[in-house]
DNA sequence: CCTGATCTCAACCCCAGGGTTGAGGCTTGG
DNA sequence: CCAAGCCTCAACCCTGGGGTTGAGATCAGG
């Protein structure tokens, strides 16, 4: 039985190219084509395809949002994302939103067909580059960026990120609370933070917690 | 031109099964079969195949180590890993070592063939489960474990994690500051938090930020 | 040896944030 | 239809957090 596919891309050339290309592949039926994200979701609702092949950058509703909607509302439809640049910011977002596959636009017909078949089967095909970045992200995590903070300020920041109060931090570092406040004021100024909530976020982004 | 494959699995049944199964697939040539990791590496050296299909658990040299050796010494040979359990500890290790694809042993013939073709092509096919875990690891996926927070409370928590003040949150959500404070009090009680600093840490741990 | 950076501390002010109580409107499901 | 949960808002209190100023002690480096 053939895999039923909806294609979504705002560029007519790409869209039509994909449709004709996919029609030549055995085992794949293109049932509809959308020119933006909103239309894509609507066509998925209408046709309930096995796979949605969607571009990341589109007007109205972008690929990430379309993916999220499709995956939550029509979970039997798998999503394969197609993009021009594999280093696009939104690649990870798309994967998190539930995209099954990931292709760059220089993929050939077999590669695209394979990704669609795989997605319909519950497997996941990733562009090599994307996979590499995923693995790096998953394994090699923190690079503890420095930010001109003194060691002591970093200590304090870490404890703030653990949710400790000033008195608790003072006890922990065996200094007075006044000292803690001083350090905090300094690091707030350096890092341009307003309060400890922002400091916690900052610490997490720095990889300190 | 056919993809040349070396198979490696210590269990004779599995190994022979794979070989006969792969021989039935068009576009795939099995050129050799190894019964442990050391032999696998040796056969790769000898035949320089396009793809090595290797089991994770094997005597002498395990799948991870075999992958690493093959990828460093014979980089033109891609590696597809086959394992019984997708939650195996060494899955990530294998991927880090350079494995291109990842299959569980309940994959059917087409799935295996697809993975091999994809690997030979520079793509990467992952078992659905493995992909999910990769993404979670890489981007702290939103694990729907919301600990009983209401949607609105989650909204507020997210904004707290962005470092916004109550008045800013109120503006952003188009409600009064009193409402924001109510939500905050509720979520603090539910999640056992003392102040917004702890809330930020909590949000990050939940993957909301 | 002086300078600058860091760490330490104190006293003060002010207010955003957090706790509490109470209450009205809105869906939803039994 | 009523109960329950959620979202909304108000008024009050009070503490901890954050801003500011100022200052002594130590230490590395020019």
Question: Would you mind describing this structure in some detail?
Answer:
Chain A has 209 residues and is an alpha/beta fold. Chain A folds into 2 domains: 3-139, Rossmann fold (3-Layer(aba) Sandwich); 151-206, Arc Repressor Mutant, subunit A. The first copy, chain A, has 10 helices and 6 strands. Chain A has helices at 12-23, 37-47, 63-73, 90-96, 109-120, 128-139, 151-161, 166-173, 177-191, 196-206; strands spanning 3-8, 28-34, 51-55, 78-83, 101-104, 124-126. Chain A has a 5-stranded parallel beta sheet, with helices on both faces. In chain A, helix 1 (12-23) links the parallel strand 1 and strand 2. Chain A is elongated, with a radius of gyration of 24 Å. The model of chain A is unreliable at 139-144 (pLDDT under 50). Chain A binds chain B through residues 92, 95-96, 100, 107, 110-111, 114-115, 117-118, 121-128, 131, 133-135, 137-139, 160-163, 165, 193-201, 204, 209, and chain B through 92, 95-96, 100, 107, 110-111, 114-115, 117-118, 121-128, 131, 134-135, 137-139, 141-142, 160-163, 165, 193-201, 204, 209. Chain A binds a DNA duplex (30 and 30 nucleotides) through helix 7 and helix 9. Chains A, B: The modification 4-aspartylphosphate is found at residue 55. Chains A, B: It holds the Pfam family GerE. Chains A, B: Residues 142-207 form the HTH luxR-type domain.
């Amino acid at each position: 039985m053939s895999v039923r596919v909806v294609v979504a891309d705002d560029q007519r050339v790409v869209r039509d190219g994909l449709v004709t290309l996919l029609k030549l592949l055995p085992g794949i039926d293109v049932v509809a084509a959308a020119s933006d994200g909103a239309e894509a979701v609507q066509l998925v609702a209408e046709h309930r395809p096995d796979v949605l092949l969607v571009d990341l950058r589109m007007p109205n509703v972008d690929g990430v949002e379309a993916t999220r909607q499709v995956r939550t509302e029509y979970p039997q439809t798998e999503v394969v994302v197609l993009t021009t640049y594999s280093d696009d910011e939104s690649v990870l977002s798309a994967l998190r939103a539930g995209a099954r596959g990931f292709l760059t636009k220089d993929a050939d017909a077999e590669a695209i067909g394979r990704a669609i078949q795989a997605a319909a089967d519950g497997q996941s095909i990733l562009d090599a580059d994307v996979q590499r970045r995923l693995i790096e992200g998953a394994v090699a995590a923190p690079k503890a960026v420095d930010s001109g903070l003194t060691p002591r300020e970093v200590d304090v920041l870490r404890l703030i990120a653990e949710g400790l109060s000033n008195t608790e931090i003072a006890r922990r570092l065996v200094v007075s609370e006044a000292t803690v406040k001083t350090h905090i004021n300094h690091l707030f100024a350096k890092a341009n933070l307003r309060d400890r909530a922002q400091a916690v976020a900052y610490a997490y982004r720095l990889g300190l917690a």
